[in-house]
Fold YqgE/AlgH family protein.
Amino acid sequence: MKLDADFFDNINYELQEPKAGNILISDPFLPDPNFSRTVVLLTEHNEEGSLGFVLNRESDFKLSSIIDDITDFDANIYVGGPVGLNQLFYIHRMGDVLQNSKKIIDGVHWGGDFDQLKFYIETKQVKPGDIRFFAGYSGWSPGQLEAEIKEKTWIVAPIEKEQIMKESEDYWKEILSGLGNKFKVMSNFPEDPNLN
């Protein structure tokens, strides 16, 4: 049986409004290599646009390989999106302890004072499971994300803070199938609908 890529468009589900703290789960057949089978955590969504980080695109780098004075911290670096790839961003569970960080949801913040973060890393007050690092970010201009959601490029869903820090090779599939039966079916679609 051949599966038409437009099949996804015909699956009915309630469109959710995006907001900081929600995730965007990509359409199974999204052809954009930057976002194919990705889960993006929205950190900002307002009249100026939207910003977030891809949670499931691990790079080949560790934090200790790109920051000279951090040698004993084995945290992976993820590709947060196609914008600003030469910039380092981070989400963490350090809350108000890390100055100038911004709350995403209860228990999860992003950004903050990097020198202070390095001190916490050096003194072992933070573990790799408490923080995720990203090279680059995902960004949308005003109205762009809403248009993509209406086109069913993205499924908007809430996420638990424990899931944000989880690392898994099947992250996209696990998150999508966790939304219920029709999404579980979609999570098993082949990447190329012509191969079904």
Remarks:
- The domain at 5-13+22-165 is CATH 3.40.1740.10 (VC0467-like).
- The first helix runs from residue 63 to 66.
